[in-house]
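Bug #2210: token dump truncated for Aquaporin-8?
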Amino acid sequence: MAELDSLLQQKSGYDVGPFRTYVRPVLAEFVGTTLFVFIGVLSVQSGNLASIGLAHGLTIALLIMGLGKISGGHFNPAVSLGVCLSGGITVVLTVAYIVAQILGGMIGAAFVRAILEDKMYNAIDGGAHIPSIDAGWAVFGEIILTTILVLSVLMNAVNDETKNEFAPFAIGFAVAVDIMAAGSTTGASMNPARSFGPAVAGSVVIPQDPWSYHYVYWVGPAGGAVLAALLYRFVLSSNAQNPSVFSISCKPIRPYDEQGLESTKTHTVPADKQPSLKMTEQFN
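Reproduced locally. Full output below:
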């Protein structure tokens, strides 16, 4: 790996050490999630689902366009989980992303708490997600909504056969449509970081308790991410007929891969292509 990094650095002029490979993407996820939660929570003041949905969706689209080539533009633990299970990033990087996203959500929500007066802040419950329907159905709704979002990411930004330059807008539209459709029932979180940050920032002051049903916004998005990854790997992906080619040990995608240089991804050899024990014994 060190030799490959050295070769790529010579060809591209980029520093491909740990900072560019790990630290920079994680910081991008932190910054992006902070900005997303800040705008998202502020938009709740409008009280109009169309405005709230568009604010969330357009913000995600803009952040993906700006930061996507650095980190992949997840800004959502459910998206990171889905991409990891689909073979896009390493488990270690996924954990780092999720930690950065949760911290970013807390900071973004804290910024909103700092700039809004108490009356305005309490009127929107600090932007926290609180379901208005039975918790079980809210979990089910979040699973479906998150499946739509994560599939939009996988099919528009990950899958070789269908990925396209309009991915930021497709993903943003998925967020906006989900919020317009279910914002008044489940809250349409799809994003544990978006729910956790406001719950922490407003837990002491907002009128409603944000923790009683907070699990909805972890269980639902996680379930949706897993469902989307399964659909992708076994049904929708260009490799769906041979899912053994997938691996969750892929190296992080780096910007210089787009310049025609050798990709740093590792690939799992399909089982039917691997040498048999009998073949390897010939060389012993």
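Output looks complete on our side. The mean pLDDT is 84. Marking as cannot-reproduce; reopen if the truncation happens again.
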